[in-house]
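P.,

For your records, the input lines for the assembly:
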Amino acid sequence: MKKIFLNLLKQPITNSYLSKINNRVIKKEFFYNLSVAYDNKTHLVSLSKPVNPKMQFTDKYAHRASQSITMLKSFKKISKNLKKRFKPKKTLEIGSNDGVFLKNFKKKEIIAVEPCLNLAKITKKKGYLTYPEFWTKKLSKKIFKKHNGLDLIYAANTICHIPNLREVFDAISISLDKNGVFVFEDPYIGAVLKMNSYDQFYDEHVHLFSLLSISKLLKDSNLRIFDIDLLDTHGGSIRFYVCKNISKFTVKEKVKLLKKKEIKQELNKFKTYKKFSLRVKKSKKELLTLLKKIKLKGKKVISYGASYKSATIFNYCNIGTELIEYATDTTKNKQGKFTPGKHIPIRSPNGEIEDNVDYAFLGAWNFVKEIKKKEKNFLKRGGKFISHVPNVKLIGL
Ligand code: DWN
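Structure tokens returned:
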């Protein structure tokens, strides 16, 4: 049974960066109620009513995975490790975005699946065989027919975006070779609870996974986990290594240890999530108090990054241009537009943070190390970052 533990109020589609602010556009903007539930049967944490994926993964998809050095390095490292460990001859990536993972493979070694047509176009143009479609059993059968069993299927920050997980995992079972491996990574619910990063909930993040929930769900599609990695990426992620034929693999000790840890942390109890929701309310109050105090002093505040995550914060906390003047973002097709829901203008960063800025809210807090390195001058002249994780605070030199 699913039970709601968190209500993040009215939210827009995070990918809907607006080109023009006028009455017509504002009236047309789509909002839905973002609430999050825990399922005591599967231990899965999911949005109670996901929006239609066709409204999200359009031919105007804004996010480009290659915008951070951290992620470029992470994809390079995992591709190298996967090649060394599993020696795949045929690999497929689900949700290939702008090709940040693909680029580490030879063109004939890898197949891409990407439903956002503008992104699929990019990887097609680079010469990668790209299916511009959603990952479904139908597509998986088509791919199996054409290419036979796949040795490796990989997905990063994609599986948690898909409402029907049974369809996803059954589709994996269809096209994966009997000795093949499915590796996927997504934000980890354990890290979200620890970091109080409630902004990991938005329309696209339909689920946030634990090892307990994923082990249960995979079994229904005859898939098994034999290894995991806990990662620092995106504020704390989990990578699952999954196979069909468990007799061919040794289940790593760390899988058993993490299961025990999750039980100890009570990730299988509703009350854990309820307590988290109280911390979220407190975080909202503290962030608003801080921003208002800073504003009263006449200081200039911007947002560093117009991330999808930050849309949850701005809309849940009701933060608009009265508190945050503008956001900067390195993604070209977000620049010159406005953030969904709260309509904060997005600018190009033009190098470093401008001299007249006193505070920068970390819309891209998951890249804080990379950002601090880039923005040394801002910190040196007394500029401060504002972060809401793990608690509302200022970050200086
Ligand atoms: O799962 C998803 C994640 C992986 O990416 C998607 N559903 C959509 C997207 O979510 P996000 O926008 O919250 O992800 P990021 O990668 O945390 O967004 C950071 C934003 O900040 C990007 O738009 C790029 C920008 N940025 C910047 O302007 N300067 C990032 C860095 C590191 C910078 O220095």
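Two observations worth noting. DSSP finds 13 helices and 17 strands in the chain. The longest helix spans residues 270-296.

Regards
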